[in-house]
Write a structure and sequence with these properties.
seven-stranded antiparallel β-sheet; two-stranded antiparallel sheet; mainly beta; 114 residues
């Protein structure tokens, strides 16, 4: 069985899929099984204004045991981290990705605000 989830912990959100035997109540899955046998994982961290400041995209979960700690594994070994920055008005002003060069929004980019 593959199950997915999305949860908020303080200023961190994560989405995951796992392959695990479901816990059943009255012959129906109830979602209380422990997280294990991860297949995919992505984590976002937000600042106090609720803006996403980093996104961790996991590409190698081999040898990792799931944990709710701030980081799981090693950057550029188990996951790529994209960092986001905002200007004083709260608009996205910087995106830094390990797989693409640093980018600043321009008026021609659809996600840039005037």
């Amino acid at each position: 069985m593959t199950s997915g989830g999305y949860s908020w912990r303080a200023t961190t959100a994560e989405a995951l899929t796992m392959s695990a035997a479901p816990h059943l109540t009255s012959s129906r899955p109830d979602g209380t099984e422990a997280v294990g046998s991860l297949q995919t994982l992505a984590r976002d961290t937000a600042n106090s204004a609720g803006q996403t400041v980093s996104h961790d995209a996991y590409f190698s979960l081999s040898g990792l045991t799931y944990s709710t700690s701030a980081t799981l594994g090693t950057e550029n070994t188990n996951y790529y981290r994209t960092r986001l920055g905002y200007d004083s008005r709260g608009r996205l002003s910087r995106t830094q990705s390990p797989t693409r060069p640093r980018r600043r929004p321009t008026p021609s980019t659809p996600w840039a605000s005037a």
